[in-house]
Amino acid sequence: MPEDSGAATGRRQMLDHDQRQSIERDIVLIARQEETLVLPTFDEDVAWALGSRLRRLGAGLPIVIDVRRFGLPLFFTALPGSAPDNVEWVRRKSSLVARFYRASYAVGLDLRLKETTLTSRFGISEADYAAHGGSFPIRTVSSGIVGSLTVSGLRQRDDHALVVRALAEHLDIDPAETALPDQ
Q1: Which sign does the torsion angle of CA 83, 78, 125, 27 carry?
Q2: What is the pLDDT of residue 19?
């Protein structure tokens, strides 16, 4: 399954020094993305623009796209080749962002670094939350975090990258300035 990340599903994977450094670097970079990718406002029109941009960027990819204010879906689409399971991944990833106000990929990397799981660390069910890349908090200048932008269907780092690219482009920021390095 493209979404699987080992430690987040309970399988322990011992990390070597280079892996730990790579994860620590990515966590810092994702925090910078969260600080940088702040919208002036967020409403139904902005949600539609972000979702439409993601749909264009994801043309030909088997993904599901969801843009929401917490508790209220504002844009949803399933592109050809996506599956009903992707809808569940979107739900679980976006629930994680709503709970922790952090990018789902950052939470997953943090858990991997600590060699633990959502259930072990926080006592929450992985049936309801997914610490896998692809959901990013929607933050506004005046209101803080108000929703999430989520993609599912690719490898988790690629889901994350697609969402970050869409936000960067929407804000007229060069996507290369906010992208994680290639692995």
Answers
A1: positive
A2: 93
pLDDT at 9 over 90: no
Which of these ranges, 8-12, 50-54, 93-97, 110-114, has the smallest mean pLDDT? 8-12
Long-range contact set of residues 21-25: C-beta below 8 Å, sequence gap at least 24 = 22/183, 23/109, 23/112, 23/113, 24/113, 25/181
What is the chain's Cα-based Rg? 15
133: amino acid identity, one letter: G
Looking at residue 183, its pLDDT comes to 84
Say how far apart CA 101 and CA 145 lie, in whole Å.
7
Residues 167/139, Cβ–Cβ less than 8 Å: no
61-90 confidence digits (pLDDT tens): 999 999 999 999 999 999 999 999 999 999
For residue 50, what are its two tokens? 């972000």
Segments in 37-180 forming alpha helices (H): 44-57, 84-100, 104-113, 118-122, 156-170, 175-178
What is the phi/psi pair of residue 75, to 5°? -150, 135
